[in-house]
TrEMBL record:
Gene3D superfamilies: 3.40.50.2300. The modification 4-aspartylphosphate is found at residue 55. Keywords: DNA-binding, Phosphoprotein, Transcription, Transcription regulation. The keyword Transcription applies. InterPro entries: CheY-like_superfamily (IPR011006), NreC/VraR/RcsB-like_REC (IPR058245), Sig_transdc_resp-reg_C-effctor (IPR016032), Sig_transdc_resp-reg_receiver (IPR001789), Tscrpt_reg_LuxR_C (IPR000792), WalR-like (IPR039420). This is Response regulator transcription factor. CDD domains: LuxR_C_like, REC_NarL-like. GO terms for molecular function: DNA binding. One of its GO terms (biological process) is phosphorelay signal transduction system. Residues 150-215 form the HTH luxR-type domain. Residues 4-120 form the Response regulatory domain.
């Protein structure tokens, strides 16, 4: 199945270039290309793209608010920010809101398409200059606990993610987990993907092991 993408970009030239790059890339499908946050929310109310390619500097709605909306209403979507804003305030606000990738607009069009594929493969593409600052912030700001110098577990997984991981640790299928939690199997998969990324693992067994080591299970 091709990866479906919604582009949200208010600069007409870039909107056209991003759209053309996606249409030319095998394995990618363009759902819509819109120039405002309101138009993006309208598309999201009617469809569930795999990836939202999002500029933060929209003319009507703050891009961070759009990310939060996606995470609340379409958690199975990945959000790839492509923006001119490289300052800490925008970077960390976007990542904390739920963006899974952050690129600056000086990247090539081939990098945009490759980053979308990377996202769907479980990666988190970030421009090198941004990645350095993220690492510096993590090294300098993460509080260590008295036992082992690691951030508190609550800062790693949300209560909902812990609840879901406990159920999957019992060997339940995603369909059954969704039934017990009152959510769709697609939403379960979206949560599992986020858990894998946060714990830097690639399987259910690894996730359960890491979470157990951290005292979450």
């Amino acid at each position: 199945m091709p990866t479906s993408v919604l582009i949200v970009e208010d600069e007409p030239e870039l909107l056209h270039r991003f759209s053309a790059a996606l249409l030319a890339e095998e394995g990618l499908q363009l759902v819509a290309a819109v120039a405002t946050g309101a138009a993006a929310l309208a598309v999201l109310s009617a469809s569930v793209p795999d990836v939202v390619l999002l500029d933060l500097g929209l003319p009507d709605i703050d891009g961070i608010a759009v990310i939060r909306h996606v995470m609340q209403h379409r958690p199975e979507c990945d959000v790839l920010v492509v923006t001119m804003f490289g300052d800490d305030d925008h970077v960390f606000a976007a990542l904390e809101a739920g963006a899974t990738g952050y690129l600056l607009k000086d990247v090539g069009l081939d990098r945009i398409a490759a980053s979308i594929h990377e996202l769907r493969g479980g990666g988190s593409p970030i421009s090198p200059s941004i990645a350095r600052r993220v690492l510096a912030r993590m090294r300098g700001a993460a509080p260590a606990d008295a036992a082992g110098g690691q951030p508190p577990p609550a800062a790693v997984l949300t209560p909902r993610e812990i609840e879901l991981l406990k159920l999957t640790a019992k060997g339940l299928s995603f369909d059954k987990v969704g039934e017990l939690l009152g959510i769709s199997p697609h939403t379960v998969v979206a949560h599992v993907k986020k858990i894998y990324r946060k714990l830097a693992v690639h399987s259910r067994a690894e996730a359960v092991y890491e979470a157990t080591q951290m005292g979450l299970l």
